[in-house]
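User: Structure tokens for both sequences below?

Assistant:
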Amino acid sequence: SCGDEAWLERFLAYMQKNNVPLDFVSYHWYWTEPRDMSKKCTRVRGLMEKYGYGKSEAILNEWNYVRGWVDEFVYSIEQIIGMKGAAFASACMLLCQSNPGIDMLMYYDARPTGFNGLFDMYVYRPLKGYYAFYTFANLYELKNQISATSDDDDVYVVGAKDGEKFACVITYYAEDDNKWEKYIDVDFGTSELDGAKILITDKNQTMAEYTKAKVENGRVRLFVERNTIIYIEK
């Protein structure tokens, strides 16, 4: 499905009426707000459950940042290959990680196209978006998601742990280009993470160590630019 929920509902109703089994539902869409993406995932899952396909896989098989397909299309491509697109991709993955409405996300695209925010399409050097996936992959390697919440609608977070190894990704993403840098207060709830390494990816630096502050007594205050990916590990 190309994201048309009315069409999808008619399809699912027809499938149910004719007792057709369904292994998965795949769909795609483009957004500028991660929370809108997550809400769509929830709505699609709701339709699947309504027609008896709640146990089938829900796969968002094409997604990326797009503000507009005509007048703002060039702007959209410029953001995809830059830091804003990277922060958007990171925020989407962090948010949807805890959404039971979605089983898989397929970012579009990692091929040499204008929608590829991971690699330069000529020489294949990593772009900023590569580090959205690199940091999320590090969480995945730790296997065990732990509780992590944000009280700021522009800040997204997921934490993971494997034994004594710990990591979290915190992303400040804003669609509004007029938003400023901000302070982010992080409370780990334990001093065991004092001295953890903090790495910052923004428009001026890539996985650079944050030296303005350090984790002490389980807390740290970070001052970051709009559209920044923060990776913390110990």
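Moving on to the next sequence.
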Amino acid sequence: MTRMLSPGADRIVRPALLGVLFHDAIDGRPVHGDDLVVEAIDAWRADRPWRLNPSRSGVYGLHALRGVQTLHDRSAAPEDLLESPPPADRLSLRVRDLAGRYVATRLNPDWPSGDILRVPLYSAVTRPAPLGLGSLKVDLRRRTDTDLPACWAWLSLHLGASVLAEGPADEQGRAQLVFPLPKPREGLPHGSPATAEALLDWTVTLHARWHPDRRPDAGEGAAGPAAE
């Protein structure tokens, strides 16, 4: 039986193999637009990455991949879209911000997926710190050779038992951690200027994790801590 589609009422639905929503690690707002370059890399054709474009809601969708069905009934489970089980490391995403706001990253997402993957983007050293927030910039070098950067290291800034901020370094070992300023400590209401300034001082601890396999030419770092 042949069914005619009614204009304005019927439409063909092609479920995406993967949907990714990027958000700012500081305030959680969605990040998308022309400055955010998101490329899908198929390990079967690694020399031919292609750029993904966001939807009106800011979701970057992957709709086609070699050997994978892309037109299927909406009620089908995501894994039913595959003609054969995919290699776990076949697909990766490379993310770069042309405006210099965020550290580049590379992801190896699970696909196909019926849920939208939410990925935080972390501030680059070239991004001005938002008003009202503190900022710590560091340049990490390897202890065995201080001329070499500790690229793609994962950092976390602690105040006592609290984690103020965390994020990755870039390919040059540079990182910026942005965090809300702690509340001033209580002190004498009529203390000297030196006493008042001391109430705004805090002792923090910076933790950094890095692995020798993380080289500048090894590709962008992961979106989370992957090295111990």
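User: Anything stand out in the second?

Assistant: The chain has a mean pLDDT of 80.
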